[in-house]
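Form P-L/3: holo structure prediction, ligand flavin-adenine dinucleotide.
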Amino acid sequence: MALTLEQQHIADSAAELLGQRAGSAAVRAAIEQGGFDRDLWQQVAELGWCGVHLPEQHGGLGLGLTELCLLAEALGRHLAPVPWFETAVLAGLALKALPAVGPVEDHAGRALQRIASGACVATLSLGDDALRWTGRHGALRATAAGEGWRVEGVTAPLPAAGSADLLLLTASTASGEPLLLAVPGDAAGLSVQRVANHDLTRPLARVGLAGVALPGAACLARGPAVDALLQGVQQRAAIVLAAEQLGVAQRSLDLAVAYTGERTQFGQPVARFQAVKHRCAQTMVAVELARSAVLGAAAAVDAGAQGADLARAAAMARCHAADAARVATQESIQLHGGMGYTWDCDAHLHFKRAQAASQWLGPCGEWLDRVADAMATTADAERAPVAAPANEPAPDAALRGEVLQWMQQHLQGRFAALRHQGGLVGPGDAGFSADLAKAWEQQLAAGGWVGIGWPRRFGGRELPIAQQVVVHEAYARAGGPGRLGHIGEHLLAPTLMAFGTPEQQQRFLPGIRAGTEYWAQGYSEPNAGSDLANVQTRARLEGAAWVIDGQKVWTSWAREADWIFVLARTEPGSLRHQGLSLLLVPLRQPGITIRPIRQITGGAEFNEVFFDGARTEASLCLGAPGQGWKVAMALLGFERGVSTLGQQAHFEGELNDLIAAARRNGALADPVLRRRIAQAALALQAQRCNALRVLDAAEGATPGREALVAKYIWSNWRRDLGALAADVMGLHTDAIDDDPSAQRLRALWLTSRADTVYAGSNEIQLNLIAERGLGMPR
Ligand SMILES: Cc1cc2nc3c(=O)[nH]c(=O)nc-3n(C[C@H](O)[C@H](O)[C@H](O)COP(=O)(O)OP(=O)(O)OC[C@H]3O[C@@H](n4cnc5c(N)ncnc54)[C@H](O)[C@@H]3O)c2cc1C
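OUTPUT (holo model):
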């Protein structure tokens, strides 16, 4: 999903032009002139923005939906008062979708040429609701007149109708057959009546046709082809509209962050108040998720997505972008205070655009209902929200097949009990058997599935990140259980590779790789949770050993692990981040006492760990003594980064369990629940797009905003899925029975409550997002 250099150039040049030409003053001046900046339109047209996606034979650039989305985002960000969406997207996509035959093709081809060259403003009506396809086309009536047609009636309010040189309108014959007609803006008998509207950058008008005569070739399509064409246009245009809304949302967020940074109250910038920072951070989460959804949907279309895949991609982009625009524009008014309620502040212009566009091409509820309908009718095997991409490269497809086959052969016999067990290592499962889980880890290791991303010199397979994802996905799809070796393999091992001595690497990596040594994470303490720098556990060097005193808490898998990495204060009198060291400590020794802590699941996967003169060798400090904070933070980066992609692959299985239960018990027929389920499915798909953006960035230099929001997104998604699971099961959430799928959903409901707490709580994530992602003050 990374942008190519050419795509980046398109985005940059659009930002540059619109930054110069469509600032607030220019937009307001255009509003005074009726909402159309003709000079800007001229420039946009000359730059070829109307023909980006149109065929080269018609003067277009022959590029894809992604390029169209990049322009739409820039135009939306500036509320550019030009009829680009109506002309290039609505009319352009409709004309492009026509079959290339006969005189119609000539007619449409000429129209495409004029659109691509910017010589014409055009618009499209999708039916009686104009901006929303419903399959009804009775507002205009067409009667055959000789070779051509005579048209009567009045359309619903249509954007750009007042300035259009070409109107693509649907009409119905007396027998109810739909037609798609190309009507010149200056046709005799055509009139336009401006309709007052709130979105002043998008004028609307009704079009009246009083006996307008059209030649036969003006009928571009008729019969069932009309609705098929319009549905396809609506789906593709919805993705571009989503990109535009993304621009609106981003701009609203930028304005809010800038204003709160300048505005002083209580003697400080209001941006310093956590309540304000968190609102901005939550908006950024919505914006980044929408960006991932838009880029993912556009990439899917450009890769040839059709049918259900196209419908779902469009719904994902549409719903996430509409939500981001709603949240961002609303918050922008709120965070501008009284100023936000004034006409002079631009916040209302974005707010009104967001509202109007949220109804164009059908409201989100309609899109969700279509996704839910597909869920209700699709066979179980096909109902995979994280399907293998249709155009997956051959080596990845082969690897996926290899994992699936291996799992089929090995997740058998005594291991069959582990199937779909414990989607996450962390919050545990009361019925979990550690012995069996360890035997499974060894089985995986023997199959070469541990350390798949590690360098070969450490016994790994050195798979690129994209292929690691393939393995994780296939593993999860095959019902692979949560990984007891997660902390060692995904957290400690990369840290050992980055900071460990060759001796430490040689000593510990083989045990992790073979599934024979397990690790626990000793960070949190009774008085050091979110504030980890408040660690009080102490360690001192005595001869050839570190001697450790103190207490850790919430230590997952401490009873099952062999080793623990302990963040301890090794410089007496040191404060906060200074003087800490990360020590590698054997857990089974007299100086250590482990007490299980019973969790809300009834199980006890986490523990208290007491250190009373516990010992470890002097050489087992990871990184330099006193530099433990740096090492500990790097390890957290691994915990919140690529390693979570494997976890997320398990979510698909949980969602599928939930959908299957909802189909069985009738919850999928409940209108409220079915929309929530559809929403969860689309959000999982968007989350996956976000994860792919993280991967693209991870292959490059610095992780971007998408990485910063990833933990907040997945943990909140799963918490909400847990709540949804409980609602889907209804009375069966409380009354415990033996049904294994219900047990899994109950486990999801309870274990998901930990996700927004561990690995950086929600509130800490929002602080990080606000400060690092938005540059707001500490
Ligand atoms: C299932 C599970 C497994 C775990 N496994 C491990 C493990 O293996 N090893 C390990 O070291 N730890 C583990 N933890 C601990 C986890 O990392 C901590 O619970 C987490 O960091 C929060 O710390 P705390 O519990 O002390 O809560 P606190 O930090 O006391 O937070 C209490 C509340 O205050 C909020 N808060 C705190 N500071 C701020 C602030 N500055 N601004 C706004 N709000 C704030 C928090 O978000 C939270 O809502 C685990 C936790 C869970 C739930």
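COMMENT: Residues 426-427, 521-524, 529-530, 554-556, 606, 754, 757-758, 761, 763-764, 767 surround flavin-adenine dinucleotide (CB under 6 Å).
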